[in-house]
Amino acid sequence: MRWQGQDISTVDVNALPGLESVGGLVRSVTTPEFAGMTFHEVVAKSALNHVPSSSPMPFSWTVNPYRGCSHACAYCLDPETLVMTADGRHRRLADVRVGDELMGTRLDGPYRRYTASTVRAVWPTRKRAYRITLADGTTIVASGDHRFLTDRGWKYVTGTGSGAGRRPHLTTANRLQGFGIGAPPSTSSYAEDPEFERGYLSGMIRGDGMIFHATYADAKRVRTVHRFRLALADGEALDRTRRYLENAGIPTSERAFTPATRVRRAMTAIHTARGGDVAAIETIVAQPAEPSPAWRAGFLSGVFDAEGSCSRGILRLVNTDEHLLETVATSLHHLGVRFVWEPRRPSGVAAIRVAGGLPSRDRFFRITTPAITRKLSLIGAAVKTVTDLTVVSIVDIGERDLIDISTDTQDFVAAGVISHNCFARNTHTYLDLDAGADFDSQIVVKVNVAEVLARELAKPSWRHEPVALGTNTDPYQRAEGRYRLMPGIIDALTSSGTPFSILTKGTLLRRDLPLLTDAAAHVPIHIAMSIAIPHEPLRQLLEPGAPSFQARLDTVKAATDAGFTVTVFLMPIVPHLTDGVDVLDDAIRRIAASGAQRVVFGALHLRPGAKEWFWQWLERECPDLVPAYRGLYPGVSVSAPKGYRSWLSARVRPLLQRHGLHGRLEEEDLPPRGSRPGPVRTTGPVMKTATREQAAAMLF
User: Which three-class secondary structure state does DSSP give residue 399?
Assistant: First the structure.
């Protein structure tokens, strides 16, 4: 590689602002081999990373010399896109800020449910954009790199079925998941319309307010009394009503109405006894002869805040006033919200129920924008797609200004559909680097990681617990050929008497075998090589960027010749493609010939993101296997069923025995967290450094 700027003797902390939390910038490096990327060499403040006790990882300490990712995805949407907030409302993407709570999703057993999701990063970008139109009228403007959840898993907006652009992408056969927002127009202008305010006051006061007139006569005079009062337990609706009355020139007073009890919340009332104001209120709440859409939206909002409910996904508007409910029905009809009348109850109360599930419910809320937050929440509800969200068209509309965000659930609800984003980008913000383009192109390299590690390991408090290398980024990635960070790390660990393990699929490990051999005389060292697909044409299709099966076996042989007992992770075994007896026998024979003495094997995991890619690949390359895979990995299932794993274990174990290898199924290979690795030349369990994640990354 041709690296520019070879002098690293001077630290320039001002060259790239924002790296103070790491230490200081030494230099920035570019190379033609990594086009468009810059490596920022920094002096690090720390090297050891402590894994939180809540983590399922079976190790407590790691060392990661690199930060950033050259394979990061970009997820971009138009700034005008409506995104759902955690309280069930909608907001323009342009108005979203870091720390806001949006609506995301989480997997809960076989279901995906709505949950709150915190925004971790927001950044602008400019990219080629596409307008996606769905059958229900929903339109979304997104970049080609954006991903949406479909009935066949996560898919990019654009892609190809072969070649370098191959990836799972939207077609007109796909159906997005969520509830959609239907056709324009946007309803954001209704709440700003004075007619909306008049409609809200009409619905609220006719629904739950009191207007009273009376005449009293005594011996001295005849007295006329006028009263208006509205008492509510929800302050949001009461505040909105009072504000709208003030906008109409009608001031009100506030007082406590009823105290809280064991079964009821406290209520507060606004009121006035001025005759002119009460008369003005009566005029305002009267229904116009020809209500405008804004008035109807406000009226429904007021009725819902006054006496509406939304429980277990069922939205009802109830009242005893038949004329009021007739106005509710005509307003729902005019605004395109489906509904049904429910039978009148013995108490005289009648109800109108919004029909059509979540799509209709969300449309009602977007149009009416009720004030009371507690009635809007979707959190905990299952994601169900009951409207037609089939992709109708995808049109290239040229370059646009777009916005990317990152959330802690990796997704959010945009235009009523489940939209993906990249949570890992936020790790760059810890360094005050941009979470967008910087994550893709600004790679931080801790050039002094070995020296810092040596100081940390020399502290009296260090308990010489095992340290895992290769848990986040491969320590023997290509750039290691230039930076040579691993020799110093190995020396620091060895000198301190700290046992360690290395998991890699990089053949650069062979460079450090002499150093590792010397180190193994002083501390336990475990080496593991990750090898996925033995059949070369299939490997080139499924993991084109990884070293070949044979190249990695050659590295295993070099390590075993150097005296190490190497574990091979034969993962993933791909059902119906690499699980045949002949294929497995050949792979295990070759692993045994390399000198490895132990194999950890496991079936294919299809995680979100990988799963839809694999479905598309399977449908194109092996369509006859699609029914079998649908049975093995139904719905949101990530792992093959227990029956298949047991069958695979029964098939592999005799082959391991035949070739003189020890081995275990992946799920049986989890050592106790924090346990020390055994002696170098034993076949005891090696530290399993996130092999499931490695397996998924290995394929895709």
Answer: strand
